[in-house]
Amino acid sequence: MTTETVATGEDLALTTPSTRELFTGFLALGLIGFGGVLPLARRMIVEQRRWLDGTQFTELLGLCQFLPGGNIINLSVAIGLHFRGIPGAIASLLGLIAAPSAIVIALGVLYQHFQHDAALNHMFAGLAAAASGLLISMALKMLVPLLKKPVPLIIAALFFIAITLLRLPLLPTMLVLAPLGVLITWKLPS
Q: Which helix (H) or strand (E) holds 115?
């Protein structure tokens, strides 16, 4: 299958990936990601391959975060389903998890032999810091489309305040704020 181009109102051509492109895109993502690939996923999907625009990515990620399971797993399946149906979902999911699964198994075997090495422990601490920086970068990029829409920005701010400052439990907070956000967005004119 070939890639199709779809014009958007933003004068930025989005492309429709083939099943093979979904597999190879998510395979590459799975190979380069460590400790969380969401920031890299946004860059690949929105900026490099132009499968979705920033707003579409943010909305789809919001849905995927609400569903049970890992966000990036849900996102790969949703994107695959969106473009190529069930074969696309399977290709995206297999591309995302195949290589990392093999790598993790191999690293687990190696770590079992070298787990008391101080240099190895320092390396993992550095990787954790890099993953945190990538997560902050992605959060800032996702904030940009929300700046034009005050309701999602207010709901996001309420989530932040409830979870981080007030230390309220996640599930009750989501059960209150998610329906509130949907209701407000639905009732207000676009």
A: none
The token duo for 167 is 């230390």
In terms of average pLDDT, the best of 23-37, 74-88, 151-165 is 74-88
What is the reported pTM?
Answer: 0.57
Distance CA(125)–CA(148), nearest Å, equals: 37
Region 1-23: mean pLDDT is 71
Between the alpha carbon of residue 113 and those of residues 71, 119, 145, 190, the distances in Å are 32, 14, 47, 58
Residue 4's DSSP bridge partners are 16
In whole angstroms, what is the distance from residue 65 CA to residue 81 CA?
A: 17
Residue whose tokens read 């489309």: 145
**For 143, left (φ over 0), alpha (ψ -120 to 50), or beta?**
alpha
CA 145 to chain centre: 15
Write out the two tokens for 98.
Answer: 């195949």
Q: Quote the percentage of the chain above a pLDDT of 90.
A: 38
Structure tokens at 146: 């929300």
pLDDT tens-place string over residues 17-32: 999 999 999 999 988 8
